[in-house]
Design a protein that fits this description.
Oligomer: homodimer
Shape of chain A: elongated
Strand content of chain A: 15-25%
Radius of gyration of chain A: 27 Å
Number of domains of chain A: 3
Helix content of chain A: 25-40%
CATH superfamily of the largest domain in chain A: MoaB/Mog-like domain
Structural class of chain A: alpha/beta
Number of helices of chain A: 15
Chain lengths: ~425, ~425
């Protein structure tokens, strides 16, 4: 397959002013990667005719396809339609059929009709991508051998139109017979270098049809493989071969072949084992509970948590005794252990987590450096305590602490066979 | 002042592959807005000589200044130095003085020295911006009347160098005598339209030296004003005049003249009033506690929280009686009130928060639609309960619920005079 170069053009002065966080580019970048159509250049340009035309000619010089978002509304600063008419040389034409198709949706709201009418004008011969999720449709224009696709700026509409209408269109015009196979490998408990050591010489593969990336972050490592091929069967066979490879080499460190968040895997795993979890958090201040309850249906495995952010709360709510606190200090293994045990008892859960530490910025005379965290997992038979020294700012320390705590539960559950998580 | 057009060039194939979230562009966009140097175009280009040179010539055609990030490391795909040498026509020269200045930092780590040496080569005549936070320094080259500034890709390093070294440099070379005055107005409890109604005809001002933006999000609205002028005194006078205007018109809805997160304002306010808070969370699952403990020193005002994610936990940990649960259901005003009172008692705090609701996706036969949330604030004398119906997906419902809960505490504390929060 000849690589198809893609360009992305994001319109919007409000993006350039730094006032809003742009969401269409990250989405499109990922999608084109999955389609095997690497993005060569991405431009953000202001809402002016001159800047839009400049950016379009720059992108069309080097790319086979340009996808742009924004500027499809009905107001004076929505210039995409007229700019594309000028750029392609095809004048704007009102499409009565498209108008009739959606007019009914605005029955009783007559004041919308002039705007709707303006949004149903497209360069002559354009391919229209109906917008079932909002007002302005997207469209594609062919222009000196290149395709330019325009999408609305509203992220939900841009995504829906791209996935349902544009992808099938691109597969047809660019004759993409088989989409590349995607393999995501989520690894827990190993660093990037340790993973590479375990995978050995066979990884990364020297096969030019396979591209790989390794992305560490937040205590997890993701490996991503894109496998190209002539047909679906061949690609699937190759994907399965690699799955087997990763299972054999990474053993219990392989968490999942998916992008599902770790919290979801853990909740599934707990449910599968019919076990429940509760926590008592100090340094993470509720973040662990928040992460677990991000997952719908978490209550089937996560019972609740005590956030004991002061010594007083550790005593009164978690029942840590005064002597332990005085002798060892709030940031200590024995206090973490009591917290874990107390969570387990208070919520009658199978497992209890206890986390205490110092996230900084100041270490407040505790005798420990900022980043010191004690994590305990209490089970029916024993309580395991680990000490960590995390580096970085407050937020990073808290995030790493929550991640390691969840990972300790994962390990406690795993009994050395955390492969093949089957759930949902 | 003649507007100075700025271009931003972000290098990195990993950004284009959609694998990492780009952080330098949003930072630079905001900074240039504050400097009164609007960004005209932003480009993301891959790590190839051809693409970098193409993007540079495109940007230099239309901009007076180009700031680029990334590609300053010592490996084969770090091409910024050599591309800028080629583009400007100034050959790379090793700068012994810069090398000697930082060599000491790598004493005992000899293997770093060749990389360090490579990173101390700059186009002849370049202005070097020392990197006190990492390895590769930034630099600026003047090239046919335009300035090109290169910064490392690591966000922390790029930010620090830009703020401490590049801004003073730009102020000098572009003769920026007075930076525009910035006024951020944080408003709580009013919608965008309600704010505009209260501000009346005087807002937005018709003065061409003042630019304004209004940005709603997450239950808060931010107004941002940029006030240009000839000198510092005049700008300051104007800023103060507008502060007075907003105070008079927005009264108790004006939360702060700053970008400080709401959680921080609330903690400050609680500390100022020598009051403490505790919570009992169900639907928000710990998010409120997490948000409050994001703020260093939160323990001075926030005592802790109970996360009672199951009915069992509501009974056993929060002491909600079986009868109330059975008669009203877990998602109800009386249960929220009991939770708030229980938090207040358990943690001996002045105020207690109770939150129960349905975040979805399924409503699980509770008789309420997804998005129903009851929030209670318990004080010494009374407990106030409010019912909300939030729209949107699970995450949005949970975020809005946590925001409204914190805002209820804010209101309970405010007694109609929440102006002039003075703290830190």
């Amino acid at each position: 397959m000849i690589p198809i170069h893609t360009g992305i053009l994001i319109l919007g002065s409000e993006v350039l002013s730094g006032a809003v966080c742009e969401k269409n580019a990250p989405f499109l970048l990922g999608k084109f990667q999955d389609l095997g159509m690497p993005v060569r250049t991405q431009i953000v340009a202001g809402d002016s005719r001159e800047e839009i035309l400049e950016a379009l000619s720059f992108l069309c010089r080097t790319c086979d396809l340009v996808v742009m978002t924004g500027g499809l509304g009905p107001t004076f600063d929505d210039l995409t339609r007229s700019c594309l008419a000028e750029f392609s040389g095809f004048p704007l034409r009102f499409r009565a059929r498209e108008f009739e198709r959606v007019k009914g949706r605005y029955a009783g709201r007559r004041k919308f009709l002039p705007a709707l009418r303006a949004e149903m004008c497209f360069p002559e011969g354009a391919m229209v991508f109906a917008n079932d999720w909002g007002m302005a449709p997207g469209f594609g224009v062919r222009c000196s051998g290149k395709w330019i696709v325009a999408l609305p700026g509203v992220p939900e509409e841009a995504r829906a139109i791209f996935e349902r209408k544009v992808i099938p269109f691109l597969k047809k015009v660019f004759r993409i017979s088989a989409l590349p196979g995607l393999l995501t490998v989520k690894v827990l408990g190993l660093t990037e270098l340790e993973i590479l050591a375990k995978l050995g010489k066979d990884f990364p593969p020297r096969n030019p049809l396979i591209s790989c990336g390794i992305y560490p972050g937040g205590g997890e490592v993701h490996l991503r493989m894109r496998i190209h091929g002539e047909n679906r069967q061949g690609i699937l066979r190759e994907v399965n071969r690699w799955k087997k490879f990763f299972k054999t080499r990474l053993k219990t460190f392989l968490a999942d072949f998916s992008d599902r968040p770790f919290e979801e895997l853990l909740i599934c795993r707990l449910k599968g084992a019919r076990k429940t979890l509760a926590a008592c958090e100090s340094v993470t201040g509720g973040w662990i509970s928040k992460r677990l309850t991000d997952i719908p249906g978490a209550s089937g495995a996560f019972r609740g948590s005590l956030v004991t952010y002061t010594d007083f709360a550790k005593r009164s709510a978690a029942g840590v005794d005064r002597e332990t606190l005085l002798r060892h200090g709030a940031v200590s293994g024995p206090v973490a252990a009591r917290m874990a045990e107390s969570a387990r008892v208070k919520f009658s859960s199978d497992w209890g987590l206890g986390i205490t530490g110092l996230a900084g910025p100041s270490s407040a005379g505790s005798g420990h450096p900022v980043g010191t965290v004690f994590i305990a997992v209490a089970g029916r038979r024993k309580t395991e305590v680990k000490k960590f020294c995390f580096k970085g700012v407050r937020e990073k320390v808290r995030l790493r602490a929550s991640q390691e705590a969840l990972r300790m539960v994962w390990e406690a559950l795993g009994h050395g066979k955390n492969q093949g998580v089957s759930c949902g």
